[in-house]
Amino acid sequence: MKVGLIYTSTTPELIADVEREVKGQLGAEVELFSLQDPSILAEVREAGYVTTAPAARLIGMYMKAAENGVDAMLNLCSSVGEVADAAQDCARYIGVPIVRVDEEMCREAVRLGRRVGVMATLPTTLTPTKNTVARVAREMGAHVELVDCLVDGAFGLDQEQFKKRLTDAAAEIIDKVDVVVLAQGSMAYAEEHLRGVYGKPFLGSPRFGAAALKEALKAKGVL
User: Which of 107, 131, 202, 206 could be bridged to 194 by S-S, CB 3.0 to 4.6 A?
Assistant: First the structure.
């Protein structure tokens, strides 16, 4: 079994979390085919939204993974998650599911509460994640109140500084929310720390994405 991991930006923490969760769900023998193009996120950040060229390159990465024989792939950037949504018809046609790392996380947030905090270190991730929470809430017949938490300047900090910035930012919204989603996969390593400090659910996406990848492979009949 071979799965594609599609990154538009990476950190050591993100790669470690994703590979650990995927192998935990699918077994250590699973073959991982990773593709990275950090210019995609860089251009999205510069423009403030997903423009044509980076979206086209991301779709090209999906096709390259499919050409290389993956059974399914995991889209690991929430800033471009809506590109993955747009590619779903093609994915179904070629028989290679594209799984968003964050969609099942957003569903779990809706299951856990009606006041959902959305924490991100990049504004380009905040809006797409809020859109996803709102969409899955509609699909689930639920109404949610979304609370923004943009942690400016945290992107790229070392682990301890990063966790401190997130902890300080969470204090500003924690009384207004039932659950907080960490919009970027690279934030997930702070999940346990934040839950310990505040005693409320903080959800990181890699573990949910890996579980959703497993379900997609089961549905395909590979597992």
Answer: 202
